[in-house]
Design goal:
Elements lengths: L26 H4 L8 H9 L20 H12 L2 E3 L5 H10 L3 E6 L2 H14 L5 E4 L11 H7 L5 E5 H9 L8 E7 L9 H15 L6 E5 L10 H10 L2 E2 L6 H7 L4 E6 L14 H11 L7 H9 L2 H12 L4 H19 L2 H20 L5 H11 L15 H12 L6 E4 L3 H13 L9 E4 L17 H13 L4 E4 L14 E4 L6 H9 L7 E6 L10 H22 L1 H7 L5 E2 L6 E2 L4 H12 L11 E7 L11 E7 L10 E3 L7 H18 L25 E5 L5 H10 L2 E10 L7 E7 L9 E4 L5 E14 L3 H4 L4 H9 L13 E4 L12 E2 L2 H6 L4 E5 L6 E8 L24 E6 L30 E3 L3 E7 H8 L1 H19 L10 H8 L11 H22 L5 H11 L2 H11 L19 H9 L6 E5 H31 L13 H11 L11 H7 L6 H7 L16 H20 L9 H11 L2 H10 L1 E10 L1 H6 L15 E9 L9 H26 L6 H7 L4 H17 L2 H11 ...
């Protein structure tokens, strides 16, 4: 009974089910085949020597032994290439290691065998490094020579599967001349197109013929025969350039060590007609009926194909319906075919057991979670099947199984064996029967091994086992926990298993190779091989040689049909063209190309897992030649590649015609791959092109590097003072707080005086001196210096610093000349203090202590007499001894930390002292202790800020040297801007480069994206993105900075708090000493940032063209590079020219064009911008949006950054604020929301007015009774996202689900943005949009710019879309825009153990689905403020909700529930975590503030004690007494 008569039956075993079984004592059962010693058996037994007992907890490889026959083979291997029976070839390996420094490569057919051999080699040759390579190591992605060189560094032995070495050699990563020996395990596999066969014929033999060095070859095999043709041995010898050797010198010893199992042929009865199905059970009948009740028209695969509306889908639909070729149909047919097999081989109980377990498992899947569509479709049919009660004990077993049980029960000694079965489903059935049947359950501890992973979407009951279960079974068998293993052919070859004393072939071996391998598993002495056959009188039951012959014939019959189909075409393959690269030696033949093309497509395709990533083939028939007697049908293949590729690279046809579809596909694949190579998308190693192929990899970011010390302009200035003939002057105007009239100076240097931006030098936390340099510069001869006036710099410095260090007698590099009055050091402390004169002066002078050093003091108040000590905050220790009836002054010292570029902290500001606790005066002095200057104190203030002014002049001179020398060709005209571009934030200078770096980074990204897009029109988006990232990363920018010499112009040093003037004489003396190269250590990011800040400065000076000139100057490209920086207009014109001219805009896109307010010149650009990669209707000239999205992303950033930079004055944004705003408006969530909000048009819709119908008592959908009065009209918004062209069921379903979530929360999002002035990140995450929403926003902007070349038009479109109005609103309202993930990382840096953040996300349907540190792989998230939001590919199941726990430093700080998406759960947890952390820190700050207040109160209380005790060490001024010689290390007086 066949479920589908139109479908071919599956191949099934012939089973005798006549119900009879022969007695185990029957003579036929006991007959053994008189079998002579066979060559193949010698190989098998020699290869698989008995090892030590493996029942210990830890199995240890046996030590090397050197039996005579092994030594014979070993010695032979040293003389020539041989194929021989040896254990691991370790002796030969050891000799090669000693004789050569080259590498040895050990090859195996399977990963498991490679692992086994690797362990043996490691244990037996521990002196060298041996590694194992397999697919799990990602070897297929090692596409650079540097990777291979690094992996193989210092490695002497490599163990791998065959394909790895073949691929590595084909792609020229591993050359044969680098190897001394290749050991090939299971060498009998090396025939026809086997990887090693091809390695030998295509690389080894040609190299040897050419006289080039080649490695030795050692082949290990159990049998050189794969068929009954002895000529195959000659072929194997030819292929491996080796000779097959069998031991001859020590044959007697070999025979002594070879254990041949006794083979018993076990008949189990006659066989029924294989063409007749066995009698079905009732359950089988019910299953068949359920299958036939399925309505094919409702099959999910059929419904899906109906919705596609493509030619390809229609063809698939036809096949699906006519052949019932759907997943659900095949699932049920597969179950039934396996049921037939079980019924034939095992019996009625077993088939009911199998079907009941399978159906129950599938129904359980329906009840758990969201089952797949095909399972839901067949669910109702399965539910209709009545499941009978099944006996727990196996009954009604077939004669074959009964015979198996008797064999197992009768086996003598302690049984350790393997039962080999053919079909995977039989493994579980037989295992269950042996484990539960009374004859065997107590004697055998049974496990099973299949060796294949479970098939997706299908039940694993009685068919599959997981890899983990396989490993557990095998390990348990090795360690003795199991003594019987039921397995498929997975255990035939190579895998190390314990010595068995019996092997049972439940099914006849399919070929001679299987027979030999199975036989070799019974290696223990007195072991038995049971071969079960249906008929005792058959030829296979009487003689081994007849059995061997029959199996060979069967094997050859199976292979003959396949061979005949390709016989003619196979002879032509050798003449097919070969793609070979002369520079590397890499080659590609028609045999290799299919897998490489698949790999290429997977690499270049869109990142979405729901899109086509594999090439698609169409087979076409070519008219056969009428003259040909065979009238053979000839075929050609066309391959279609993914839409991510350029239009002219997506379609390719086979070069020749073929009789085989397989070879026609190989031909088309070759033509496609060759075209990809010619287009530069495949490199010279014939692998997918990587950025490193044309952009050198500079390694990892070092973090810090040694660079030149900062350029010092003062030696040149000093030399000019001595030798120069000209002086230069600018007017310097100084605005002093509280003084109406500004101070005027001539600022003179012997070199051109740099123009400087207005400079604020902060006196305290609230007031600053403003220094303004004049726009005009005068030049005059040194002889005219007298006309400029005397140098007042000396006097100004003396006013502020003479009390600390000597000033007289030397020249300061900067000359300041007051234009208002004479300034001389003689005026310092020149007058007696006169209270009346002091108080009447509009610009009072400084007063100075009469202590010999003239310490400068500011008087804040004059008192008529000595104040009571109770009113003084810090009275001097001798206050009681001071005179009573003289005037006193309240004073404050001239602080050291004045003239800062950044306002000081108010808490540390000495000028901020206020009366408290009854203390009216901070410090007082009698007038007899002080004298007055003969000029206003404001000049001393100017002197006090000269160090900071000198530092600012130095910065400008450094920038001027760079701007007029190395950057001279750019003709920049804004020195203050260039100066800003060189100052790091860590220098605490008057400004810093961060804002310029921000815009420079954006401009550089845009120029890189634009130029690459124009120069490489065939490059797909992923390659362009990788190229851009590598071009503008910090490592490359840092290298460019150092190569250009920018490192010595970077200003990062902080002004010393213990400043000392350096005079012209000091610089001249230093110039006499030999020059030494000094270096400093800087952050590599800082060195890189200066490149971007200079690009930003160039942009601010001269726009985009000037910025591009700067980029080309600072980041030149090698002459050999295909990439060259080119003008913006030229790149735009090239991209415009690439777009087709004659494209007709689809009707559905015309409303979009109208709503944009812009008419495209080339309609193809708008069409491309709105075409998703899934759109299978792409014509030859059509492209998807990916490349435009790549460019549009950069264009959008430029527009937003320009808007942010436009905020000036009090609204000017700091660097971090700019980053936050950029990342907020261009994040995927915001752009997706705008794509849904932007209504392109409104469509009128009508629907039935159900209320009127009910009133008329009409049927709701009775069309004949509907009138216009029964209809209501609506206007349906047609948002922007609906205009995206796609052809994906997944995309459509996603859009529908996202729209539903958007409609549910849009009002809340709008209110949060426009009323509450914040970005609702959690709500946006609940919307859960996929990336294509933001992609079409960016691609549209890219298309508009390419078509118009106008930034203004792009801004207009963004205004229409609502993005720029949103940005303006956020800026105007100063909204909080920082993403919670970024804020959390700032509050709790993940790189610190005590603040490490961990999110645990839990689904109500799937349990814990994500656990890990949020920013573990995103170290730059805070640095650049950008938020990396997951694409919402993991769409929640129906009814699925999420919760999230957030841990910081191991402590739970947040627990949120009820989230609609994973990202919402994470964002809400981050929001809550931020609130908790800030609350904890606020409480901690309040606690510390309270403790500080308490300490101050205690200090004040101490000042109320006896003055002599409280201030015993205080001098008359209330300061520490200035004892002569009591100074710090820098000569400063020790003061409070």
């Amino acid at each position: 009974m066949d479920l589908d008569p139109g479908k071919d039956k599956s191949v099934e075993m012939e089973v005798d089910s006549n119900g009879s079984s022969q007695d185990l004592n029957d003579e036929s059962f006991k007959s053994a085949v008189d079998e002579p010693l066979d060559l193949k058996e010698l190989y098998q037994d020699a290869l698989e020597e008995p090892s030590e007992e493996l029942n210990d907890e830890v199995s240890t490889p046996a030590a090397l032994t050197a039996r005579a026959y092994q030594l014979e083979m070993f010695e032979a291997s040293l003389k020539q290439n041989i194929i021989v029976a040896m254990d691991t070839g370790s002796g030969k390996t050891q000799v090669e290691l000693e004789q050569s420094d080259k590498r040895i490569w050990f090859l195996t057919p399977t990963v498991a065998l490679a692992r086994q051999q690797h362990q043996v080699l490691q244990s037996q040759i521990p002196s060298v490094k041996a590694i194992m390579l397999c697919g799990q190591d990602g070897v297929d992605s090692w596409s650079e020579q540097a990777v291979w060189d690094a992996i193989l560094l210092n490695v002497r032995i490599v163990v791998s599967t065959y394909q790895i070495l073949f691929d590595a050699n084909v792609h020229s990563f591993v050359h044969l001349d680098s190897l001394s020996l290749i050991v090939i395990d299971e060498a009998h596999n090396c025939s026809k197109s086997h990887p090693i066969s091809r390695l030998m014929t295509e690389a080894y033999l040609p190299a040897k013929t050419a006289g080039l060095p080649v490695p030795s070859i050692l082949g290990l095999t159990a049998s050189p025969l794969m068929s009954n043709n002895l000529a195959d041995i000659d072929k194997l010898e030819q292929v491996l350039d080796a000779v097959c050797r069998t031991p001859t010198l020590h044959r007697e010893e070999l025979l002594a060590h070879v254990n041949r199992p006794e083979m018993l042929v076990v008949p189990y009865g006659g066989s029924e007609d294989p063409d007749t199905d066995p009698t079905p059970t009732d359950l089988m009948i019910r299953f068949t009926e359920a299958y036939h009740r399925l309505d094919i028209s409702k099959d999910p695969d059929v419904l899906f194909l109906k919705a596609q509306r493509t030619e390809r889908a229609r063809e698939k639909l036809r096949q699906a319906v006519t052949k019932k070729d759907t997943l659900a149909q095949k699932e049920l047919r597969g179950i039934y075919n396996r049921a037939l097999l079980v019924r034939r081989q095992v019996g009625p109980w077993a088939v009911d057991f199998y079907l009941s377990r399978t159906v129950s498992h599938m129904l359980a899947e329906l009840e758990s979670g969201e089952p797949p569509a095909h399972l839901r479709y067949i669910g109702e049919a399965l539910r209709s099947i009545p499941i009978p009660a099944i006996s727990k004990e196996p009954i009604q077993l077939s004669p074959k199984v009964q015979t198996l049980l008797k064999v197992l029960a009768s086996h003598q000694e302690d049984p350790v064996g393997i039962v080999f079965v053919q079909e995977r489903v039989m493994v579980s059935i037989v295992t269950h029967i042996i484990s539960t049947h009374p004859l065997t359950k107590d004697r055998y501890r049974t496990a099973s091994m299949i060796g294949t992973a479970s098939m997706p979407g299908k039940t694993r009951n009685h068919r599959d086992m997981t890899k983990k279960e396989d490993v557990t079974s095998l390990e348990g068998f090795r360690r003795g926990r199991f003594n019987l293993l039921v397995a498929t052919s997975v255990l035939e070859e190579g895998i190390d298993v314990p010595i068995c004393n019996f092997v049972i072939c439940f099914d006849e071996p399919p070929n001679i190779k299987s027979f030999i391998q199975r036989r070799g598993r019974a290696r223990e002495r007195s072991s038995t091989l049971y071969l079960m056959v249906g008929d005792a009188s058959g030829e296979s039951a009487t003689d081994w040689r007849n059995l061997e012959r029959l199996m060979k014939e069967k094997y050859e019959d199976e292979m003959r049909q396949t061979a005949e189909l390709e016989l003619v075409d196979d002879s032509r393959i050798g003449g097919y063209p070969v793609l070979e690269v002369g520079s590397t030696g890499a080659r590609m033949t028609i045999r290799d190309v299919r897998s490489h093309l698949n790999h290429f497509c997977a690499k270049v395709s869109s990142r979405s897992r729901h899109l086509q990533k594999e090439p698609y083939f169409v087979i076409g028939k070519v008219c056969s030649d009428p003259a040909s007697p065979e009238r053979q049908t000839l075929l050609k293949a066309t391959v279609l590649l993914p839409a991510s590729l350029a239009p002219d690279l997506r379609r390719h046809e086979s070069l020749w015609t073929w009789t085989s579809e397989k070879l026609a596909i190989m031909d088309a694949s070759f033509q496609a791959y060759q075209a990809l190579y010619n287009a530069g998308l495949v490199n010279d190693h014939l692998l997918p092109t990587k950025v490193s192929d044309f952009l050198a990899d500079l390694g990892k970011d070092p973090g810090h590097i040694r660079v030149k010390t900062q350029f010092d302009p003062w030696p040149e200035v000093a030399h000019a003072w001595q030798e120069g003939s000209s002086l230069y002057s600018r007017r310097l105007t100084i605005l002093v707080p509280g003084v109406e009239a500004p101070l005027e100076f001539e600022f003179i240097l012997p070199v051109p005086v740099p123009y400087m931006a207005p400079l604020k030098l902060w006196w305290n936390s609230t007031s600053a001196l403003t220094l303004i340099t004049g726009a005009e510069m005068q030049e005059f001869r040194k002889q005219e210096v007298a006309s400029a006036g005397p140098d007042h710099s000396h006097a100004l410095l003396a006013m502020a610093f003479a009390h600390r260090f000597p000033i007289q007698g030397r020249q300061y590099p900067i000359r300041l000349v007051s234009t208002q009055r004479k300034l001389d050091v003689d005026g310092i402390a020149a007058l007696e203090f006169d209270p009346q004169l002091y108080e009447s002066s509009s610009q009072p002078p400084l007063v100075r202590l009469v202590d010999g050093r003239n310490m400068p003091l500011f008087v804040t108040k004059v008192l008529p007499s000595k104040p009571p000590v109770e009113l003084i905050f810090k009275p001097s220790s001798d206050h009681a001894d001071l005179p009573e009836d003289v005037p006193y002054v309240v004073y404050k010292p001239l602080g050291k930390a004045v003239g800062q570029f950044i306002p000081p902290d108010a808490a540390q500001d000495q000028d901020n002292w206020t009366p408290k606790n009854g203390k009216l005066f901070q410090k007082v002095l009698p007038s007899t202790h002080i004298r007055m200057d003969d000029f206003p104190a404001i000049f001393a203030q100017v002197g006090a800020v000269i160090p900071a002014f000198t530092r600012a002049v130095e910065m400008s001179l450094v920038a001027a040297d760079l701007m007029y020398s190395r950057l001279g060709c750019l003709q920049l005209d804004n020195l203050p801007l260039v100066t800003t571009a060189l100052i790091s934030s860590g220098s605490r200078g008057p400004t810093n480069y961060e804002r310029l770096e921000f815009i420079g980074d954006t401009i550089l990204k845009f120029c890189a994206c634009l130029t690459a897009s124009a120069l490489f029109p065939t490059y797909h988006e992923r390659l362009l993105s990788q190229w851009k990232d590598k071009l503008v990363n910090n490592v490359r920018l840092c290298r460019a900075s150092v190569d250009f010499g920018l490192d010595e112009y970077i200003i990062n040093s902080v002004s010393s708090k213990k400043w000392r003037p350096k005079f012209v004489e000091d610089y001249l003396d230093e110039m006499k000493s030999p020059e030494s190269v000094e270096t400093r250590q800087l952050s590599s990011k800082m060195v890189a940032d200066v490149v971007e800040s200079l690009i930003g400065a160039a942009y601010m000076c001269g726009g985009m063209s000037k910025a591009l000139e700067c980029i080309a100057l600072l980041m030149p490209t090698p002459k050999s590079s295909p990439f060259k920086w080119q003008e913006i207009g030229l790149s735009r014109a090239q991209l415009f020219a690439l777009a087709p001219n004659d494209a007709i805009l689809p009707e559905q896109l015309k409303p979009l064009e109208k709503a944009m307010g812009y008419t495209f010149t080339k309609k193809s650009l708008l069409k491309e911008a709105m075409t998703h990669p899934s759109c299978s209707g792409l014509g030859n000239a059509d492209s998807c949006y990916e490349r435009l999205e790549f460019l549009g992303d950069a264009i959008l950033d430029v527009i937003v950054v320009k808007r942010l930079m436009a905020e000036t004055g009090p609204n000017e944004l700091a660097h971090n604020d700019m980053h936050e705003h950029l990342s907020s408006v261009v994040t995927a969530d915001i752009m997706a929301f705008l794509a849904m909000e932007w209504v392109i048009m409104q469509k009128d819709t009508y629907e039935i007015d159900r209320a009127k119908l009910d009133a008329l008592d009409l049927l709701p959908f009775s069309q004949s009774k509907i009138t216009p009065a029964n209809l209501v009209s609506n206007k349906e918004d047609w948002p922007f996202w609906r205009f995206m062209r796609h052809n994906s069921q997944h995309v459509g379903a996603t859009q529908t689900a996202t729209q539903e979530r958007y409609l549910a929360i849009r009002d809340d999002i709008r209110a949060a943005i426009w009323k509450q002035n914040e970005l609702p990140w959690a709500l946006l995450a609940r919307m859960g949009p996929q990336k294509f929403y933001s992609d079409i926003v960016e691609s549209l902007i890219g298309a508009v710019w390419v078509d118009s070349g106008s930034w203004e038009v792009c801004e207009h479109v963004l205004n229409q879309m609502g993005l720029l109005p949103l940005l303006d609103h956020l800026l105007k309202t100063k909204a909080h825009v920082m993403h919670p993930n970024v804020e959390l990382q700032i509050l709790a840096p993940p790189n610190k153990r005590e603040t490490r953040t961990e999110f645990v996300i839990i689904s109500n349907k799937r349990g814990i689905i994500n656990r890990g540190t949020e920013f573990e792989d995103e170290p730059s998230a805070v640095d650049d403020g950008l938020v990396s939001v997951e694409p919402y590919d993991d769409i929640p199941a129906h009814g699925e909700v999420f919760s999230c726990k957030l841990f910081v430093g191991g402590k739970q700080v947040a627990d949120v529930t009820g989230a609609g998406t994973k990202e919402e759960a994470r964002v809400r947890a981050a929001e809550k975590g931020c609130l908790v952390i800030k609350a904890e820190r606020k409480a901690e700050e309040e606690r510390k503030a309270a403790e500080a207040a308490k300490a101050v109160a205690n200090e004040d209380k101490g000042h109320n004690t006896e003055n002599g005790d409280a201030n015993a060490e205080d001098g008359p001024s209330g300061e520490k007494e200035e004892v002569p010689g009591r100074r710090d290390a820098d000569g400063d007086t020790v003061m409070n």
